[in-house]
Amino acid sequence: MSTAPIILFVYNRPDHTLRTLKALENNNLASESELFIYADAAKNEQSKAAVEQVREIINRNWRFKAVTLTLRESNCGLAANVIDGVTKIVEQYGQVIVLEDDLVTSPFALEYFNDALELYRHQDQVMQISGYGYPVKDIETLPETFFFRVANSWGWATWDRAWNRFNSDINALTDDFTAEQIHQFSIEGKENFWKQVKEFKTGKINSWAIRWYASVFKNNGLVLYPRNSLTQNIGNDGSGTHTAAETTYQVVLANKKITQFPQEIQEHAQAYQSIKYFYAHRKGSLLQRGIRFAKKKLNELKK
Questions:
Q1: How far apart, in whole angstroms, are the C-alpha atoms of residue 214 and residue 151?
Q2: What is the pLDDT of residue 236?
Q3: What is the dihedral sign for C-alpha 135, 137, 140, 143?
Q4: CA 182 remoteness from chain centre
Q5: Could you tell me which residues are beta bridge partners of residue 157?
Q6: pLDDT score for 75
Q7: How far apart are the C-alpha atoms of 257 and 50, rounded to whole Å?
Q8: Residue 163 · residue 90 · CB < 8 Å
Q9: Of 289 and 151, the one with more pLDDT
Q10: Taking residues 245-250, what's their average pLDDT?
Q11: What value does the mean pLDDT of the chain take?
């Protein structure tokens, strides 16, 4: 099978975009992979200079099999850009690897994505391959890869058969959720996924990711995760559209090829408990929360 196409979504962060492309170019399958870059347009005068810097970077001679640029003429916003880009490419190629402009990859990420896409191509319950692996406390006791229910947006891959079940209508997706489904969707109340659904409905956020997770959950889908992360989010410095400055999710990238994949298509019980514990304790002490809140407000004042 040929390698899966890669989509990279960029906007107005030239430093992050450069780091993301350099790491991706260093992947073992980079020269065999087609890269599609979707560059959003500036939403205001203040963004124009940074957007132009990003466009200069993506126009450089990157070492991929081919690079195709889509330069938006008007500002789409991240959600619309992702939904449109993923839909077009996955319909054309049947599979896709998706990255944003703040994700550094391990040199083994593309091999992992392509191997998993091939292995689970015909397993309908497997709806996504996550490149990110949570920094859980008992990480070394987990298998090299495992299934978990939550869809992740920090470097991922999927197939047309799964993306065809994406529903952008949050009301159609979630209005019939029972109390127990809400409880399970939110990992027994340990993570704020249902809060994100409610915020989307009231217009406070415009997230493609919460709708994708809800689509996966509603179809009883599963997501493959690596024990050792293949992606690192470098946007948690407060520079992103939807991120505040924090280090909670920092990981050590995998330094070798992933070779072991589960044969049984079911959620891994220990991994579920480990990630649930991580969600429950990730915010830390009151002092740590206060420091993060202060940094977030300071960053907002700078923007």
A1: 8
A2: 77
A3: negative
A4: 22
A5: 97, 129
A6: 97
A7: 35
A8: yes
A9: 151
A10: 79
A11: 93
DSSP 215: H
Q: Buried b / exposed e across 17-30, counting CB within 10 Å, b at 16+?
A: bbbbbebbeebebb
pLDDT digits (tens, 9 = 90+) for 252-278: 999 999 999 999 999 999 999 999 999
Is this model's pTM higher than 0.85 or not?
yes
Q: How far is CA 69 from CA 3, 40, 66, 122, 248, in A?
A: 19, 11, 10, 31, 33
d(CA 33, CA 25): 10
> In which order are the strands placed within the sheet that holds 34-39?
66-71, 34-39, 6-10, 95-100, 156-159, 126-130, 222-226, 145-148
What is the rounded CA–CA span in Å between residue 180 and residue 53? 48
Tokens of 139: 């990480």
Please report which confidence band the pLDDT of residue 247 belongs to, taking 50, 70 and 90 as the band edges. confident
Half-sphere CA count of 161, side-chain side, radius 13 A: 10
Confidence category of residue 246, pLDDT binned at 50, 70, 90: low
Residue 250 corresponds to which tokens in the numbers above?
């920092």
pLDDT of residue 283: 77
Residue 58's SS3 state is: helix
292 touches 246 (CB < 8 A): yes
User: Which residue, chain included where needed, has tokens 């406390």?
Assistant: 137
Residue with the two structure tokens 């998706």: 98
Query: For position 241, what pLDDT does the model report?
Result: 45
Reported as type and span, the H/E element at residue 35 is: strand 34-39
Degrees, nearest 5: CA angle 158-115-253? 90
Residue among 99, 150, 163, 152 nearest 130 (CA):
152
Backbone angles phi, psi at 39, to 5 degrees: -110, 115
In residues, how long is the chain?
303
